[in-house]
Design brief:
The structure holds two protein chains of two kinds. In chain A, helix 8 runs parallel beside helix 10 and helix 9 packs antiparallel against helix 10. By secondary structure, chain A is α+β, with helices and mostly antiparallel strands. Chain A folds into two domains: about 220 residues, Up-down Bundle (Multidrug efflux transporter AcrB transmembrane fold); about 70 residues, Alpha-Beta Plaits (2-Layer Sandwich). Chain A starts with a helix and ends in a 22-residue tail after the last helix. By secondary structure, chain B is α+β, with helices and mostly antiparallel strands. Chain B has three domains: about 100 residues, Alpha-Beta Plaits (2-Layer Sandwich), CATH 3.30.70.3400; about 150 residues, 2-Layer Sandwich (Gyrase A, domain 2), CATH 3.30.1360; about 180 residues, Multidrug efflux transporter AcrB transmembrane fold, CATH 1.20.1640. Chain B contains 16 helices and 17 strands. In chain B, the strands form four sheets. In chain B, strands 6, 7, 10, 11, 14 and 15 form a six-stranded mixed beta sheet that branches. Chain B has a five-stranded mixed β-barrel with strand order 5-9-8-13-12. Chain B has a four-stranded antiparallel beta sheet with strand order 3-4-2-16. In chain B, helix 11 crosses helix 14. Chain B is elongated, with a radius of gyration of 31 Å. The C terminus of chain B is likely disordered. Classes of the chains: A alpha+beta, B alpha+beta. At the A-B interface, helix 4, strand 3, strand 5, helix 6 and helix 8 of A face helix 3, strand 3, strand 16, helix 11 and helix 12 of B. Chain B: This is Protein translocase subunit SecD. Chain B: Part of the Sec protein translocase complex. Interacts with the SecYEG preprotein conducting channel. SecDF uses the proton motive force (PMF) to complete protein translocation after the ATP-dependent function of SecA. Chain B: Belongs to the SecD/SecF family. SecD subfamily.
């Protein structure tokens, strides 16, 4: 093993995440703007469960397979297809179709299954996941965020709570933006995917913050590192963990996404795994590049950390940054200079 | 620890075998289910308004999802409402949603046994008279009291004089309405009153000993035998519509219990209620019939209803509050009832033509809040609260079709998803073995233990709590692998930190690292758990079910890390292979490079 892989393996990584916060803030602001623009311009492509749709019912002359039924409707130009077999034939739920399209689909189905057009009946169905369900989910989300702020304020401090929740909102908006621009369908499964991301993104941030708290607790007036440097060290220290965790979580999701998109044109599988996939990547990015830098921005305003920063700037300048580098975080003693040269000064 | 865990797994496995539940219950998307179409009926045959339909959809959705962890869908289809519930032949759910209509509150005018006395069928004597039997128990209200139902300690009379009742209606669950705060004024309304449960069971003619005598009861004495044969015996008929009286005489609750009847709010109504004898055995349920006054207020004025425990008595009670015109109307109704003789001091709650409860008014209730007491069990209190809360459907419905439908997902997609999930898991295993070498065995085994626990929990929850696994749950569980894996990744990295310092043996490092990792894991899991709890209690339907699965996996994560990963690593640390840092152990020199490359420098503060 050599190079980056080897260093990753040994946990010797040192990226100046916090130092480049202006870059991240810029990038995130850009992504957020694009996402919001997407939500405003395109909106979300809500699924049948939210918007209602058309339900076609028919009883084919001979036995047909579910693949054949799905294929027939997809070929007729329908995008959202939910196929169900009932004790009385087939039931296909599609997005809300205009009148002329309905006739077209009815004809296609009739032709495909040896029926007359009249035998394919249409029913217009309303949302099964109406506003109330979505409203309650959003209500729950807001209460959840407040509860998390409260909890993290107690477990850590309010600045960490704030940074974590801001990163969370960031993840949500960007994931929603990806949906808006790509036009992927938003189904209840997608919504549940979002909720998973929330927990996941927070979990990641909390582990990082726990480490930061531990490291920065030792910062005193004679400290040789600034809060920024200490936080960055903590971040790097948990970087391997973050990457490993993300990889472990994302591998199954990626596999499902791959199969879901290649084998089946549309469906729950794809909807769910896509939101998870996007959300996890954004979530990992945000806990590294948004949550921690934001926390540092908040913390560096505190007089005690400003004092440390001023003193270090006056005495050693760049040197202090080098000295502080690559502390085995959480260790009581025994910092090593091994990673010094790799470290970028602040 | 490892042994305790093994015991837990075995115990859960044993429970699974005993209940013959070896596979989870699946949700609508995986297993398909029953689809019911409800057609609204309006009094004049016109189309129902959009608003009332939307409202009905929401109420039905609340009702169907009342348990929180099932997974049903409710949609509007034209003027109809389509309800899909997971599982084939879900008749109870169909019944539940199909029989909801507007809830109405009516003052009770008269009460009688629910079935005419069919000779030879009904015993006219209480089969089990108690020694202290009082032969003069009133056949109307006091005849159906139940000794147990004395939540207010200021009513000793109720328990003091048990007496046999000749009434075939048997005893009803007595309940009483009070202000939420336990008020001493309850003494006056010492007569608890019959309440009834809308169960559709055949009545059984078992009369049971009664346990009440009240100050009021004495005021309306009536001979037992007379009550048997004439439902109107002992009934004060003033103010009762003759048509209602006629109806009351002929109504046989065993034949027509009023279920599905559209009670006209502006007319007096004769309806049936049930008494479940509080023993949860439907066979003992008996009918009670009522003459009720015009509806004084409707369920739409109910703001909220909930069940809870009365702190002073520890009894289950139902609390409700009113909004809009409700508090005024309610105050008027309870004042009128309070100033009337039994049984007119009772207010019946009528849902879809059936009296679901008829508590006695213990005091005029102003302020729009009320509390129903009466020896409820928790499920009874929950049920009544739900009926009060969700019962006020703005429309009446008729079931127009019931279909069994297959899953919305399709077997092909499910198969694809499972294969993909399997491949993903395999990749995870390969990765953790490559990265963590020997420790990879720990992570793989931890995942296996977590999987076994999760599977067992899902099966048992399906069996006992009606938890239904849907695709989002499955994916959520797969993602939770990441969370589970994270816990031991945190731990492993901590061990490495300790080792890098180079001053500790592996065995010591394992312990020191654990103390630190434990804190991190607990804080992070707490966040997940808070998310799950909040979403579970605030969201409905699918979201609640999902939150439930999320909370479950978080708990399992903690169990696995504490009871398996940590003890197992500690065990491994004793092995030479790990302790000496074998190349394949995951704790080898290369991993711990910093201790070899750079020997300790002077201690540095950080």
């Amino acid at each position: 093993m050599s190079g980056i892989a080897s260093r990753l393996y040994r946990g010797e990584v040192n990226v100046d995440f916090v130092g480049r916060r202006k870059l991240w803030y810029g990038l995130s602001a850009f992504l957020l703007l694009i996402s919001i623009a997407g939500l405003v311009v395109n909106g979300l492509n809500l699924g049948v469960e939210f918007k209602g749709g058309s339900v076609f019912s028919f009883k084919p002359a001979q036995t047909v397979s579910i693949e054949k039924v799905r294929g027939t409707f997809v070929d007729a130009g329908v995008h959202q297809v939910i196929v169900q077999e009932t004790n009385n034939g087939w039931r296909v739920t599609t997005e809300s179709l205009p009148a002329e399209k309905v006739t077209e689909v009815q004809n296609a189905a009739a032709k495909g299954f040896g029926l007359r057009q009249n035998d394919v009946t249409l029913q217009v169905i309303g949302a099964s996941w109406g506003g109330q369900v979505a409203d309650k989910a959003i209500q729950g989300l807001i209460v959840f965020m407040l509860a998390i702020i409260l909890y993290l304020t107690m477990a850590f401090e309010w600045k960490m709570a704030l940074a974590a929740v801001v990163a969370l909102v960031h993840d949500l908006v960007i994931t929603a933006g990806v949906y808006a621009w790509s036009g992927f369908e938003v189904t209840p499964a997608t919504l549940l995917g979002f909720l998973t991301i929330l927990g996941y993104s927070l979990y990641d941030a909390v582990v990082v913050f726990d480490m930061i708290k531990e490291v920065t607790a030792k910062l005193g007036t004679t400290s040789k590192v600034t809060y920024t440097q200490a936080a960055n060290d903590a971040l790097n220290h948990t970087l391997i963990r973050s990457l490993n965790t993300t990889l472990v979580a994302i591998l199954p999701v990626a596999a499902i996404l791959f199969i879901g998109t290649t084998l089946f044109g549309a469906g729950t599988l794809k909807d769910l795994s896509l939101s998870l996939f996007v959300g996890m990547i954004v979530g990992t990015y945000s806990s590294l590049c948004v949550a921690t830098p934001l926390l540092v921005t908040l913390k560096e305003r505190e007089p005690r950390y400003q004092a440390i920063a001023r003193r270090l700037a006056a005495t050693g300048g760049a040197g202090s940054g080098v000295k502080a580098a690559r502390q085995p975080v959480g260790a009581t003693a025994g910092g090593t200079p091994a990673g010094d040269e790799k470290r970028k000064k602040k | 620890m490892l042994l305790v865990l093994l015991a837990i797994i075995l115990a859960m496995g044993g429970a699974m075998f005993l209940n013959r539940a070896l596979t989870p219950e699946y949700g609508l998307d995986l297993a398909g289910g029953t689809t019911v179409t409800l057609q609204p009926i309006t009094p004049n045959g016109s189309a129902p308004s959009e608003e009332s339909l939307d409202l009905a959809v929401n109420i039905i959705r609340d009702r169907v999802n009342g348990s929180g962890i099932s997974d049903a869908e409710v949609a509007k289809a034209g003027d109809n409402i389509v309800i899909s519930v997971p599982g084939v032949g879900q008749e109870e759910v169909v019944k539940l949603v199909g029989t909801t209509a507007e809830l109405r509150f009516r003052q009770v005018l008269a009460i009688g046994p629910g079935t005419p006395t069919p000779p030879g069928e009904l015993s006219t004597q209480a089969p089990t008279p108690t020694p202290a039997a009082s032969p003069t128990a009133s056949p109307t209200s006091s005849g159906r009291q139940k000794a147990k139902a004395t939540p207010t300690p200021t009513r000793p009379a109720q328990t003091a004089a048990p007496g046999p009742s000749g009434s075939p209606a048997g005893r009803a669950l007595s309940s009483a309405l009070t202000n939420p705060s336990p008020a001493p004024s309850a003494t006056r309304g010492a007569d608890a009153s019959p309440s009834a449960k809308p169960r559709r069971n055949t009545p059984t003619p078992t009369a049971t000993p009664k346990a009440t005598a009240t100050p009021d009861a004495g005021a309306t004495p009536a001979p037992d035998q007379a009550a048997e044969n004439d439902p109107l015996a002992g009934v004060d008929t003033t103010g009762i519509d003759p048509a209602a009286l006629e109806r009351f005489k002929t109504l046989d609750c065993a034949k027509e219990n009023g279920q599905g009847a559209q009670d006209d709010p502006n007319k007096q109504y004769v309806g049936c209620g049930f008494d479940d004898l509080n023993d949860n055995d439907p066979k003992n349920d008996v009918y009670v019939k009522y003459i009720l006054d015009k509806a004084a207020l409707t369920g739409t004025t109910i703001d909220s209803a909930s069940s809870g425990v009365e702190p002073n008595t520890g009894a289950w009670v139902v609390q409700l509050s009113f909004k809009g015109q409700g508090p005024d109307q309610w105050s008027k109704l309870t004042t009128t009832a309070f100033n009337s003789q039994a049984p007119r001091n009772q207010v019946a709650v009528v849902l879809d033509g059936v009296v679901i409860s008829a508590p006695a008014i213990q005091e005029p209730i102003t302020g729009g809040r009320a509390q129903i007491t009466g020896g409820f069990t928790q499920p009874e209190a929950d049920e009544l609260a739900n009926q009060l809360k969700y019962g006020a459907l703005p429309l009446k419905f008729e079931k127009s079709s019931i279909d069994e439908v297959s899953s919305t997902l399709g077997a092909d997609q499910l198969r694809g998803g499972l294969i993909a999930g399997g491949i993903g898991l395999l990749l995870v295993l390969v990765y953790s073995m490559l990265y963590y070498r020997g420790l990879g065995v720990v992570s793989v085994l931890s995942l296996v233990v977590a999987t076994v626990l999760t599977y067992q929990s899902v099966v048992l929850l399906g069996e006992f709590a009606n938890f239904r696994l849907s695709l989002p749950h499955i994916i959520g569980l797969i993602v939770s692998i990441g969370i589970t894996a994270d816990s031991f990744i945190v731990y492993f990295e901590r061990i490495r930190d300790e080792m890098k310092e180079g001053r500790r043996s592996l065995r010591a490092a394992v312990e020191v690292a654990w103390v630190r990792a434990r804190r991190t894991i607990l804080i992070a899991d707490a966040v997940m758990f808070i998310a799950a709890v909040v979403l579970y209690f605030l969201a409905v339907g699918g979201v609640a079910g999902f939150a439930f699965a999320m909370g479950l996996t978080t708990l399992i994560d903690i169990v696995v890390v504490f009871m398996f990963t940590k003890p197992f690593v500690a065990l491994l640390a004793r092995l030479r292979f790990f302790a000496k840092g074998h190349k394949l152990s995951g704790l080898d020199a290369e991993r711990m490079s910093e201790t070899t490359v750079a020997p300790k420098t002077a201690p540095q503060e950080a």
